[in-house]
Structure formats: C-alpha cells, structure tokens
Fold:
Amino acid sequence: MRRVLALTAAATITAASFAACGGGSADTEEVGARKAACNNAPDFALAAYRPTAANGATDDYRCFLLDPKLTEDAYATSARIVPRARSIVHHVILFRISANALSEAKRLDGASSGVGWSCFGGIGVRSDSGQLDNGSWISAWAPGWGAGRFPDGTGVALAKGDLVVMQVHYNLLNGRAPDRSQAVFTLAPPSGLKSIDTVLLPAPVELACVKGERGRLCNRDAAIADLGRKYGAAASFAPTALLAFCGHDAVKPKPSTTSTCNRTVRSPATIHIVGGHMHLLGKSIRVELNPGTASARVLLDIPRWDFHWQNAYSLEEPVEAKAGDVLRVTCRYDPARRRHGMHGIPKTPRYVLWGEGTTDEMCLGIAQVTRG
Structure:
C-alpha cells in the first residue's frame, strides 16, 4: 500500500503537517483527487517564514526540518515540491538525514530566530549532502520544474526514523513575501523497488567583465572576497575547489564564457533522468556521455536556457553507463545580458564566479540513476 505525506516548510519537528491522501497509481483521475486531498491537508505549522538577507546580499538560504515519522523502511516513489511564494523561491532541495542527526538539526533550529536556520552552501547537518556521486538528495524544484515522480519501479530509499531537510533558496530581488512551501511524498514499501541516486555534475564558472566595463568587482580577487563577505568563507573557496576538481588551472584561472567538466563513471549505472541548472546569465547547457567517441550520446541539450523554465527530463529509454565512461557538462553564458538589466540582473560590472546568489552563476548537470 502506498501513502502520501504533505509536509510544510514552516513545520518543526514537533509540528509537522502530514496527511494520508490516497494511493500512488499514475491514473490521471486518481492523481487529481490525491493532489486535491494533499492540498487540503491539515496544517499544524507554527508560522510562515519571511526571508531576510544580510551583508548586502539579495539571497537567503533557509533550511527547515521535516519529520515524515517513518516507523519502517520505505521508498519515496515521488517527491513533489509546492513553492508557495513563487515570485521569490529560486530553488528548493530536499535532503534526507538519519535519526542520528536529529539533535544536531534541533540545535541549529533552536539557535536561529524564527523557524528553520540559515544554510548557505550546505544544510549544516551531518549527511551525504556534499557527495557528488550518491548524495542525500531526494528531489529538487526550480521554476518550471515538473511533478517529481520517479521512474516506475524506482524510488529514493528512506530508512526507519529518517528525517527530511528542506533547503529553500529565496531570491530577494523580487521581494520578501512570507513563504510556507510544501513537500508531498508518495511512500511505498521497499519490496520490488530499485533505489534511485542523484549524481551531481558541477563545473567552475569564470566570467570576466566584458569589453568596456569597469569597476572594483571586475577584479577576480575582489569578487571572491565579496562572495565570502556575503555567504561565508566556504563560498570564497568554492571557485578554486571546482577548478581543481575539474582539472583546470586553479592558480592562474582563465576566464571564459564556456564552462565544462568531465567526470569518470565509477561503477555501472542506468541513467533515467537528466537536468541542468544555471542562473540569469546562462545561454545553453548540455550533458553528454562519452563525448568525442564512437559511443557518444547527448543526454540533455538546452540550446536556449531560460532561468524561469527549468526542468529535469526523463529519458525515453534509459541509458546504460559503464565504469570508465565519461559524463561531461558544458554551460555557455552571455555576461553582456547584464547591460539590459532584465529579470533582476544587476547592471553593476563584476567578475562572476560559481556562487550561491541568484546574481552569481552556476553550471550544474544532474543525473538520476539506478546502480548495477
């Protein structure tokens, strides 16, 4: 038997909103009824969260602790995220953490004013959230994202007592409205299901000021210091770490409007879903398997990137990747878009790097796979 849980972002560990909302089939009529039931689920959250920013930043990362109250092992066969304040929600990521991390999460929650805690860069709780080949991601949402249902016969494994951390990135360029975003899970017994893992494919971003632009932040060192001022020391280290990770020159980095990174597949995997993520200066993103070889496959190709219409795409036929195969992500950017100031892009010239803010940039490929 499947069951559906609806958890609000403003919930605490002692006041999680959840409701059993029906079965888990893909029947359109049943899904519609289940959505209506979940949207009308009783809400026992204490209060909505109103995002804020400090140190001249225009972004807020907030983590919320959710408790699905798992009394036995289960698989999440879908994880639908419902952002309530859509105008300011940049993205949402759901992470699983073990019951052993409960005290750590409660300490962070209790030490912060208001509901949840600040969490730039990571969720601040011991988990696999920093792993790139098999992290603790459950699901994610960005503008344009779909329903969050995993391929038939698969799901994200959740152990008895596991908890969920919902990390919400708020873009305050569009205001500071209160938010009570929600995550809706369909849970099923583990029998007969395969675990689906999320593989992250980041690449460094090094975008110099364009010809004719002048300003203090056109200096790379000044731009890195600005990242640290706004988001903390880890943010200022990330650009160099990504260069080294991807085999680029981290000592004398070369700016480029194209970012790329190759990753070697460590063990056999079946690729089911592929997505990408960039910010406001992005032009295109592409994810490939074994590029430049006879067995090359294009897994994702978005030639005209639109930040306001992102998605993860299910492949028509899953693709097998062998140990030793290469996954490549390639992103292209247009820093000159800054001159137009559209979609909240600040016109202030600066050297743009990988960063947490909406006005920074990212190059991230995402693949969801089963193993073996």
Observations:
- The CA atoms of residues 13 and 67 lie 6 Å apart.
- The mean pLDDT is 85.
